[in-house]
Every structure is written in C-alpha cells, then in structure tokens.
C-alpha cells in the first residue's frame, strides 16, 4: 500500500472461519492541479463480514484528515475528501470473514404482487440502460420463455455468446445500445446490457460494482442483480469470475451511481489505479445456473 499507515481501524469483529475469507485493496494516485472535492466509492458495503479495514489519504506524503463517510443504498459507503494541490494518494484495505452466517438481501412483495418503490426504481430506464428502447428486441428474443428466472438466465447466456469481451473497446459514455451495436465491451457494458434487457422484460435489475477475486487482469468489476422469486440474484454475463467470491462496493441504477471516484469541484487527474482481491484457500468454481446472492 502507498501513503501513510496510521494505526486507526474503522471496524473489527471476531474472525470466523479462515476458509473463504477475502482481502481487498485499492491504491489510487491523483494529480490535483486545483483544490478538489472528490467522492470515493472504494470501501466494501457495510456488513457483518468486515473483520478489519483502513483508509489512508495523503497529499505529497502528508496525511490528510479522515474523509467524511456517507451511507449509500444497500450498505454502500461514499467518502468525501477535500484535497489540496499536489499528489494525492488514497489507499484502502479490508479483510472480510466467511459469509455463510449472513442472510441474503431481500424485500417482501406486497399483497397482489405490487412492486415496492425500490423495485420500481430498478424497473425504470436509466442513463446507461435505456430499456424502453429495446423492448421489441427483448420480447422477440426472450418473450416466448416463461417470465422470471428462465428469461434472465437466457439473457445472460445470450450476452455471453453474442458480445465479445474486449478490454478498452468502450468509452465512459457508452450505453447498452452502443454495446448492442458494436457487439463488444467490458464488464460494465455486459452488466448494463443485462440490466437493460431484464428491465425491458419487466424484471427489476440493478448495477453492482464489486471487488472480484480471480479477475484477470485485476481491476474493479461490475455485475448485475435481478429481482427473482422475492430476492436479488447476482448475474455476470462475462463469466470471468466465480460470483460467490464477489465483494459488494456500491449498488445503483447503472454505473453513474457506482463510480469509484468522482471529482465534484476543482481539477484532479487520475494517474494510477491498482486493485487486488484475493480469497483464502481455493478460488471457488462458479456454476452459471446456481443462485448467488451478493453480500
């Protein structure tokens, strides 16, 4: 890790089994040309899994005050930092324990199968997921299948076989429509396309930014969750990592809600980014048809 190493740790609980533990880190370096307010989403979502974590920030090697933490949806946390001119370093590390004792996130469906407000939000079109533009395609490709799980699994399989994973093939402003037109993308684009097609098929779906042990090359990763049978199920059309190893960072309508860094005021340029994510023991093998809940 770069930057200063204060002794302070935010959270600590007794460790559970060492099997299936997780260690995640992220190191960022920015050049700040004009004092800047920056929002970071690097910390893992708040849950009982966190054994220990720390966040260190410094400018030109001098530690800065601890960033202000804001609570986001689904346990996500956003940190606000005011950075002076200079070289800003941000280092995050978290150790997580075995997740088996936790319950998957879910909401009861009201009488008459009416949607909750949360589900309604994730059924609507959003910036990168214009689901209202692809209803015809979605119905033509998947409408003959039974609603719910069969359609979502078919969507994931369709994306996996139809879209090529090509590093650097998309731009930050590309939407799911661009991915459909070019037939290529990265994890962010795969997730956006899955969300878009699910919403077009009347299945609430949402974006999740995650740490992903086993990803090669290592970086932040993106998957999507679909509301099926009273709970959120996790899907990854890239099929590059085991879903059971994933660690949630941020959740939202699409990538606009889950950026790892957002310069709100001032001028700051990202110079370097290094992400690591590991498991203790063997990396699990993923069954694409299995139910997986993201914690």
Automatic annotation (TrEMBL):
<feature type="domain" description="Transglutaminase-like">
    <location>
        <begin position="179"/>
        <end position="239"/>
    </location>
</feature>
<dbReference type="InterPro" id="IPR002931">
    <property type="entry name" value="Transglutaminase-like"/>
</dbReference>
<protein>
    <submittedName>
        <fullName>Transglutaminase domain-containing protein</fullName>
    </submittedName>
</protein>
<dbReference type="InterPro" id="IPR038765">
    <property type="entry name" value="Papain-like_cys_pep_sf"/>
</dbReference>
<dbReference type="Pfam" id="PF01841">
    <property type="entry name" value="Transglut_core"/>
</dbReference>
């Amino acid at each position: 890790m770069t930057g200063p190493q204060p002794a302070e740790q935010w959270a600590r609980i007794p460790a559970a089994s060492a099997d299936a533990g997780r260690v995640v880190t992220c190191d960022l370096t920015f050049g700040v040309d004009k004092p800047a307010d920056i929002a970071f989403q690097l910390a893992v979502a708040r849950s009982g899994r966190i054994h220990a974590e720390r966040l260190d920030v410094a400018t030109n090697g001098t530690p800065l005050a601890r960033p202000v933490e804001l609570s986001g949806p689904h346990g996500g946390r956003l940190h606000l930092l005011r950075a002076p001119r200079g070289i800003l370093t941000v280092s995050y590390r978290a150790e997580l324990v075995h997740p088996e004792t936790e319950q998957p996130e879910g909401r009861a469906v009201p009488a008459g199968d009416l949607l909750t407000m949360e589900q309604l939000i994730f059924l609507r079109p959003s910036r990168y997921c214009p689901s209202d533009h692809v209803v015809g395609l979605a119905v033509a490709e998947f409408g003959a299948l039974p609603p719910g799980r069969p359609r979502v699994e078919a969507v994931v399989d369709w994306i996996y076989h139809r879209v090529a994973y090509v590093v650097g093939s998309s731009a930050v402003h590309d939407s799911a429509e661009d991915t459909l037109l070019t037939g290529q993308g990265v994890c962010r684009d795969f997730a956006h396309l899955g969300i878009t097609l699910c919403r077009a098929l009347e299945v609430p779906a949402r974006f999740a930014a995650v740490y992903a042990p086993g990803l090669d090359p290592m970086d932040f990763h993106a998957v999507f969750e679909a509301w099926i049978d009273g709970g959120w199920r996790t899907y990854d059309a890239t099929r590059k990592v085991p879903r059971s190893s994933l660690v949630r960072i941020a959740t939202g309508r699409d990538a606009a809600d889950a950026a790892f860094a957002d310069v709100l005021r001032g001028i700051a340029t990202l110079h370097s980014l290094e992400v690591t994510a590991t498991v203790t023991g063997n990396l699990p093998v993923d069954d694409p048809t299995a139910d997986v809940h993201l914690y």
